[in-house]
Amino acid sequence: MQVNTYLNFDGDCEEAFKFYEKCFGGKIEGILHWAGSPVAEQAPREWGEKVLHAGLRIGDGSLLRCDCPPGTYKTPQGFGVPLTVEDKDKAECIFEALAEGGEVQMPLEKTFFAEHFGMVRDRFGIPWMILFQGDADD
């Protein structure tokens, strides 16, 4: 069994995932646009180049995503996408990149359960939880 995260966007999905690919060091595994798809008629003609479905491989997991048809997008709430990073410097770099143009909800700092943990909503509205386990007892 495997759990992956599916994210919805309001027309800026491709931009977001090119950013995530660079930020996380992931690999986009294909992008299907609305135009030419079997459901193309369910979105306005100008929505043709928006993303119907795509995947981004990050380590052993994947982020899947799409651009919702106009008028159907809802701001993400009630969850955070967890990202466990094995290197402290990389965790800091990722957190800073996600925070640029976004909103820090909890600074990346030492907690009772991790050497570094922080929460941030990025400029695309996606809530992230960045964790570098390290040794929280140091």
Oligomer: single chain
CATH class descriptor of the largest domain: Alpha Beta
Distance between the termini: 35 Å
Q: From the helix content, strand content and strand pairing, which structural class follows?
A: alpha/beta
Largest sheet: 4 strands, mixed
- Give the helix level as a range of percent: 10-25%
Count, helices: 2
The fourth-level CATH homologous superfamily of the largest domain is 2,3-Dihydroxybiphenyl 1,2-Dioxygenase, domain 1
Poorly predicted runs: none
The whole-angstrom Rg is 16 Å
CATH topology of the largest domain: 2,3-Dihydroxybiphenyl 1,2-Dioxygenase, domain 1
Which strand order does the major sheet show? Answer: 1-4-3-2
Give the percentage of residues in beta strands.
35-45%
CATH architecture of the largest domain: Roll
Which whole number gives the mean pLDDT? Answer: 93
Give the helices and strands as they follow along the chain: EHEEEEHEEE
Report the principal-axis shape.
elongated
Number of separate structural domains? 2
Task: Characterise this structure.
With 138 residues, the protein is an alpha/beta fold. It folds into two domains: 5-67, 2,3-Dihydroxybiphenyl 1,2-Dioxygenase, domain 1 (Roll), CATH 3.10.180; 81-132, Signal recognition particle alu RNA binding heterodimer, srp9/1 (2-Layer Sandwich). Helix content is 17%, strand content 36%. It contains two helices and eight strands, in the order E-H-E-E-E-E-H-E-E-E. The protein has a four-stranded mixed sheet with strand order 1-4-3-2, covered by helices on one side. It has a four-stranded mixed sheet with strand order 5-8-7-6, with helices on one face. Strand 7 and strand 8 form a beta hairpin. The longest helix is centred in the first third of the chain and has 12 residues, at 13-24. It is elongated and about 50 Å long. The termini are far apart.
